[in-house]
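Weekly sync, protein design subgroup
Attendees: M.S., D.O., the rotation student, P.L. (late)

Item 1: inverse folding check
M.S. brought a backbone from last month's batch and wanted to see whether the design step gives back something sensible before we order anything. D.O. pointed out we never logged the input encoding, so this time it goes straight into the notes. Structure tokens as presented (393 positions):
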């Protein structure tokens, strides 16, 4: 029987979702039991873990994500090395769950983003948008012996979309409510928000990137403290916020741009950090820098709500996931800015804070296999809906 037909006949599937985000922290790996598809989807998280890259590989991926020029041979090798690391993560999650790799039915892999250039540009007489995620899905499929869906973004971009964010499709499946206006906020390297008006249909979902997330804090922590992140926001809590800096940072042109919109290191990487250092007083302490940028993440999210959402949808609940949900100072600031909106984390709804995006790529892969259109044109600004991803047998 053809492997796709075999999958379509299964009442339940064991699916592994894989993603490494803009922060390049490691490979988030979720083993999910999924039944049915579309709005009828039911799911259960069996196991989750994050498998870090080797230190040298992580550093090289940071360089690759920010470099203007690449060594083509080096890039080709890294495309395969990242795929090998993703495949190893599948074996590791199976071992942790106590199951055999042969029991896995499907893998959904986002890959590792190296470039995301959603703005249209003229190139060789063609108007193009482009994105690049490495971690070749054919390698993952053949290493694991499992049908793999990868490279989800380009299909949407081929239709004039931003190619991101993709998680809102899953937010619609996982978190919509018949009685409350909800927003699902994910704070990873970049922050993105999904607006789910009560009893909404797919074409009523609004979502977009609000701007930077942990990426800025993580960079400052590595620079000044030799640590990958600010655990619980402890360093930020020891510093002083400079309110005047918030007003300067929010003038970045991305924040005035109307949705749909998406962003990445191209706008909030080194150039933004250079701007950050230039506007702070020279004697500013590292703790003050981190306190102010931590506050800015929450401030920019609320600014997006005030500018583009509040006039048509007043929220009842804000549901936070991603690494930023662990930062107690970010959560405190969100509660301050969004009051009286109730701020919770996705864990309150049975979705582990760190696992949500990996779960979503398991769900997106299941949708692709079933032939369902799984982008949201209202979110990405694509001309039409389409089936995302490449299926590797």
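Designed sequence read out in the meeting:
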């Amino acid at each position: 029987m053809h492997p796709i037909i075999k999958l379509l006949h299964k009442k339940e599937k064991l699916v592994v979702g894989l993603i490494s985000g803009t922060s390049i922290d490691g490979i988030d790996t979720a083993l999910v039991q999924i039944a049915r598809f579309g709005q009828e989807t039911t799911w259960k998280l069996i196991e989750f873990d994050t498998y870090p890259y080797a230190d040298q590989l992580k550093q090289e991926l940071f360089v690759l994500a920010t470099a203007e020029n690449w060594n083509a041979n080096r890039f080709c090798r890294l495309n395969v090395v990242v795929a090998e690391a993703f495949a190893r993560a599948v074996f590791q999650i199976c071992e942790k769950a106590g199951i055999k790799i042969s029991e896995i039915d499907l893998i959904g892999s986002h890959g590792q983003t190296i470039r995301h250039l959603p703005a249209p540009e003229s190139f060789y007489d063609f108007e193009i948008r482009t994105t690049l995620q490495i971690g070749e899905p054919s390698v993952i499929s053949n290493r694991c012996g499992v049908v793999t869906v990868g490279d989800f973004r380009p299909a949407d971009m081929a239709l004039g979309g931003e190619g991101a964010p993709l998680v809102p499709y899953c937010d619609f499946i996982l978190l919509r409510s018949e009685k409350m206006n909800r927003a699902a906020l994910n704070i990873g390297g970049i922050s993105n928000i999904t607006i789910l008006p009560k009893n909404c249909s797919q074409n009523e979902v609004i979502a977009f990137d609000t701007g930077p997330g942990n990426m800025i804090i993580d960079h400052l922590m590595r620079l000044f403290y030799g640590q990958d992140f600010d655990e619980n926001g402890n360093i930020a809590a020891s510093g002083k916020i400079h309110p005047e800096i918030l007003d300067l940072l929010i003038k970045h042109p991305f924040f005035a741009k109307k949705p749909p919109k998406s962003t990445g290191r191209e706008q909030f990487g080194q150039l933004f950090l250079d701007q950050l250092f230039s506007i702070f007083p020279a004697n500013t302490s590292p703790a003050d820098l981190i306190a102010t940028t931590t506050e800015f993440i929450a401030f920019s999210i609320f600014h997006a709500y005030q500018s583009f959402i509040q006039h048509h949808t007043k929220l009842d609940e804000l549901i936070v996931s991603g690494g930023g949900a662990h930062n107690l100072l970010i959560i405190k600031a969100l509660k301050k800015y969004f009051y009286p909106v109730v701020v919770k984390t996705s864990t309150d709804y049975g979705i582990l804070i760190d696992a949500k995006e990996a779960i979503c790529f398991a769900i997106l892969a299941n949708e692709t296999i079933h032939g369902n259109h799984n982008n949201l044109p209202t979110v990405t600004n694509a001309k039409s809906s389409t089936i995302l991803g490449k299926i590797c047998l």
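Discussion: The chain has two domains: 3-164+355-392, 168-349. Residues 72-97 form the longest helix (26 residues).
Action: P.L. to compare against the previous round before Friday.
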